[in-house]
Amino acid sequence: MYATSTYLLTPSLLFLSQLLYAQTAIIQGQVVDPRNEVIPGINIMLNQERGVATDVSGNFTLRDISPGKHTLAISGIGYQTQTQLVTLAAGQTKQLTIRLEEGTTQMDEVTVVGQSETTEIESRGFNVEAVATRPLQAQSLDLNRVLDRTAGIRIRQSGGMGSDFVYSLDGMSGNSIRFFVDGIPMDYFGSSYSINNFPVSLVDRIDVYKGVVPVELGSDALGGAINLVTSQQADNFAEASYSFGSFNTHQAAVQGQWTEGNSGFTTRLSAFYNYSDNNYRVWGRGVTYDNENFRPIEFTRKEPAERFNDDFRTINAKVDIGFTDRTWADQFFVGAVVSDLDRGIQHGQTMEDPYGDARYQEDFLMPFLTYQKNDLLIKGLNTNLFASLAMKDGLTVDTSTNVYDWRGRIINTNPNGGEINNNSRSAFTLSENALVVRWNTTYALNESHKLGMNYVLNDVQRSGSDPFQPDYRIPLLEPQSLQTFFGGFSYESTLLNEKLTTNLFAKYYAYTASVNEGVLVAIEGEQQFISRSVDNQQNNWGGGFAASYKVLPTVKVLPTVLAKVSVEQAVRMPNAIEALGDGITIQNAPGILPERSFNINAGVTLGKFFRDDHSYRLTLTGFYRDTQDQLLFTVVDNQGNGQFQNIAKTLGKGGEFDFSYGYRDFLEFTANATYLDIRNNQPFDEVSNQPNIVYQDRLRNTPYLMANSGFRFKFNDLLQEDSRVFAYFQTGYVHEYFLGWPSLGNVRQKNTIPAQLTHDLGVSYAFPGERFTVAVDMSNITNEQVYDNFLLQKPGRAVFGKLTYSLQSISQL
After folding, report:
1. Of 22, 311, 347, 524, which is most buried with the most CB atoms under 10 A?
2. Which of these, 570, 192, 161, 573, lies nearest to 390 by C-alpha position?
3. Contact at 8 Å (CB) between 94 and 72?
4. What is the pTM of this model?
5. Which residues contact 509 (CB under 8 A, 6 or more apart)?
6. Nearest to 657 by CA among 669, 644, 671
7. Domains within the chain, CATH numbers bracketed
């Protein structure tokens, strides 16, 4: 009944929407600066009669326009005024991209310079880069692929869709990098809401902080932060997309908003569904079967094996109900995130032992509340609050007695059962409740000085159950807990006609954990495995300074120069996975310590817009990281299980360059490279006090030379008037690196991650009005054998298609 109603209702709504739009026209667009960065607060006037201002994403919409010729006047402080003639047909939705050139306006001998939101963020002194996703929203790209092209970032995945991943960002990696959605940490939202599952179509912009992270994000990020900025448009809208492709991969996403104008009552919905068989082909070392003589035979590129227990499915929905633009609140919402996840477990931390029946299932529910108000009680006092209670149940089913090889065949049986740990069967349920309270407030003393405060409390409670109760699970069955507290204070000033921006901040970190460890004890003459609780408490202070200085050229041919420097003593507390384990292949670590790091970042950006729509931008950055107790994941047994361990001291230095060239909207060329020199900096072993034989070695299992380059093209009116074609070609390179410590073992016998060179391309076509878009993407077009982690092969060549439909002004339906 429901499906039938949906099929009948959908075409009716589409027909009705077209009928309502048939008589008048609409102008939609985005205003950008010479670097293609969005500009909020720009005035758009239609025929000098009525107008709108661009929102925080630089977007604007003008409705109910009669057919014919019209004049737009585009103006804003700090930018040169521009006029544009537009011809509209009845029912047409005209899409525009307007680029404004920067200018200066003299006001009582004070120079006022306009800034886009991204430029304003970068000018605060933090080493931050904004990655625009709007041109890519129609493509079949996941966010990991988008960010892997960014200077200084390397994403290492263990497989296809839904697989584990680790970010490396300017020398720091793993959980030293924190992820946010609109300033709220992503790890509050469950496994399904991770960045590798989040659809690019739901994201307008990605802010990448490298090294020092501002206080308002409210996190103990040590190596940087990535903040996904979702659509902030005020208009009612609805959008749906569907992607399909290789390995029976399907991705669907919907989002929408509806606001009742008089009361401000607002509802928002975003949901997505991801599925893939992940049955891509693998071959080479570790991918074997035994012949009739019980000799291992390695699969080859010509005759590869196929992954057979790696399917992945997740469905996720987020609903917000509340009010916007009220006198008592700019935004007030109560809502919930609900998700369901199911996936096969193909192998452990290497591919040498395939699993055929092991599975993981997860249910997640998180009610939450958000409140945001600018000028609360007094002008200049802005505050926002987020509170949530997350409830998660994860079930790992490992009860099979079958033993598989890479042909997907049962080659033996194990009477004890279990594939992940072949000593006993297990059906382990991990239950976790997490309470989160996050409060952030700023107060503008005047136009040049601002104070900020942030408070975050995270309380995690865990317990487990397993009807089989194998020994290795016993520590995870008893209750475990983790509490972290973060407090921050900042003082920001803008001086010298907004050329100099400084940010001084202090941070406090507290960590308390009660973690179980398994021990063998003699009870009535018999050895028994029991659980013993270990308490761990740490408190640390941190702080730092960030500054930027912008130089506007006095000679026309010279570029604008932005110089930035930041210094911080940072602390990163262990998260629940690192301290308490994951119940599958990551063991808990009772004595784990927080990471501490002294970070310095310095860089300069040169940018110029010249000669009839040509532009370039060059950024050079250097960094220094002196880290103590760095957390590094280490495989600890021959079954691929691992544990997070501290490395006493590491020292990292490095640099990167990022270059882009653009010609109008037609062409953009980008190239970047990153070099890292991260070494073990502990001269003596802390236990034996003997010389450390890996002292000054490069950090094991860590890439140190990476590069990317690519072209993007945009063609307007190519096949139809008001249509748009977008195409790209991208190349990525990672240099070979050692799995273990370079100074240990024979050079010829050392395990390495081989050099990686991959190429991707894609094209999309937006029909007139850009309501309907079709796209095709191909990744790893040369079908290279690629690894990010040792003996964990990633997918080869893959092709995906995507359809997107966008409907504006749903309130008119």
Report:
1. 347
2. 192
3. no
4. 0.76
5. 220, 484, 485, 486, 538, 539, 540, 541, 542, 571, 573, 594
6. 671
7. 2-106 (2.60.40.1120), 118-533+542-812 (2.40.170.20)
